[in-house]
Amino acid sequence: MNITVKTLNRTALLALSPFIGILLWLLFSTIAIELTQGGITEPGAEEHAPDRVYMNEAAAGLDQARDTAVHTSESIKTEIELYNKTNAEMNAIAKTATAQAKRPLQIYDNNITAKLGKPAATINSDKLRAQLFYLKNDNFRSYAVKIQLKSDDAMKMVMGGSEIGTSMTTLDAVKQHKAAVGVNAGGFADGGGKRYPLSTTIADGEYVSGFQASYSDLFFVGLSEKNKLIGGLFASKDQLDAKKPKFGASFVPVLLKGGVSQQIPAKWQTSPKRAPRTVIANYKDDQLLLLVTDGYNEAGSSGATLAELQTLLRGYGTIDAYNLDGGGSSSLIFNGKVINKPSDGGKLRKLPTHFLFFK
């Protein structure tokens, strides 16, 4: 009986062992099988679910970034087009404003040019514009050069040599310094075979022989650091220095001040009455006018009177005007040619100072 029972138990155990193994495997395995409404969830699906969510969010972020980049690119393109359009419009407005601002000056220049006539020749460069005019007057022949200075180094005064007392003709000065236009400058005094400039003379910003207060109607005329014509009677060096002169020379008399004729000293009304003359003047827009007249001699029988020059200069519209050395000293050089008719037997006189203009 007992043997039979044991045998049966062993037989049952052997028969049930596969099922017992499956049961134990199911109890201790990490694989979970869940039934859902959609069916069976695959093993490990819960473990990878956060990765799928992250990937989906990243893809959505990239799509949004792409859309944002496209929108930003279009906005930038629109802004650039708007900027270029605005910039072009502003440039056009600036050009128009500049042209309108220059228009009164152009009208003024046209008016003063018309009073002189038609230019016989013109030199135009980055440094200056110089226009030559041949003028016809009742009692004499004259020449004018209207000059617009465009740079600080367009005009200077040079001495007749490296040492004070030396001299050269205006034509030689023009050639030596490679100038485009030249005219004689201040007066001089002879002594010991040399020619010394009269009174206060400044070259390259330095006083050649110190300052001398104005006397006997002697004036100083030259250019300031701002390229403006300065001149008149100066009682002290400080008074002249306040004008910041770059260069200049002295002679007599002042012809116009502020467009008003100045009193001509009695001596200069008759001695000589008529003569070759050289004048430097300015306009209200700071252009300069060089005026040179012919005369056969210095005896007073030909040439211009100073009063006649005052009338001419007012008619030409100049503001300030100064009489430079005349007679045989009157010299006008334009583009390497002597324009006037020198009264020293047709020869140019050697002088200690010259106003030169450069192109």
From TrEMBL:
Presence of the UniProt keyword Hydrolase in the record: yes
Record GO terms (molecular function): hydrolase activity, acting on glycosyl bonds
Top-level taxon of the source organism: Bacteria
Alphabetized UniProt keyword annotations: Glycosidase, Hydrolase, Membrane, Transmembrane, Transmembrane helix
InterPro entries documented for this protein: NAGPA (IPR018711)
Transmembrane domains' residue ranges: 12-33
Database matches in Pfam families: NAGPA
Phosphodiester glycosidase domain sequence ranges: 178-358
Protein known as: Phosphodiester glycosidase family protein
Organism: Paenibacillus paeoniae
Top-level taxonomy: Bacteria, Bacillati, Bacillota, Bacilli, Bacillales
